[in-house]
Amino acid sequence: VTYKSTMGHEAGGEYVDEFGGEEGGAASNAMGALAIMFSAYESIIYYSTDEDRAVNYLGAGALAGVTYKSTMGLRPMGVYGVGLAAVGLGAVWASRKGYYG
C-alpha cells in the first residue's frame, strides 16, 4: 500500500499525480502526438485536394493511427488506423449535426 501526501509524492519516494495515476504523463504525450499527426495529415490532404470532405478526416485519422503504431507491426497499425479514422469521422458528423463546434 502506498500513501500519497498532499504534495503529490508517495511515502516511498515515487511520484503520483494529483489524480492518483502514474500513467497521466504518458497518456497526455500520446494524445498530443496523435493530435499533431492528425492535424498535419488533415492539412496536407486538404491543401492537396482543395476540398473539405469527410474523407479527408477519415484519411487523416487512418494515417495518424498507422504512423503512430508503425513500429509495433501490422495488427496494431490496422487497429489504430481504423479506430482513429472512426474518431475523425465521428467528429465530422457531430460538428455537422451541431453537437459541438
Task: Give a written overview of the molecule.
The chain has helices spanning 24-49, 54-68, 74-97. By secondary structure, it is mainly α. The model has no long low-confidence stretch (mean pLDDT 80).
Topology:
Elements: H1 24-49, H2 54-68, H3 74-97
The multimeric state of the shown protein is single chain
Structural shape: globular
Q: What low-confidence regions span 5 or more consecutive residues with pLDDT below 50? A: none
**In whole angstroms, how far apart are the ends?**
44 Å
* DSSP strand tally: 0
Determine the fraction of residues in helical runs and give it as a percent range.
55-70%
Helix-strand category:
mainly alpha
Mean pLDDT value:
80
| SS strand fraction | under 5%
The topology string of helices and strands comes to: HHH
| Total helical elements | 3
From the alpha carbons, calculate the radius of gyration and give it in angstroms: 18 Å
What summary fits the major beta sheet?
none
Keywords:
single chain; 101 residues; 64% helix
What is the gist of this entry?
This protein is mainly alpha-helical and 101 residues long. It has helices at residues 24-49, 54-68, 74-97. Helix 1 packs across helix 2 (54-68).
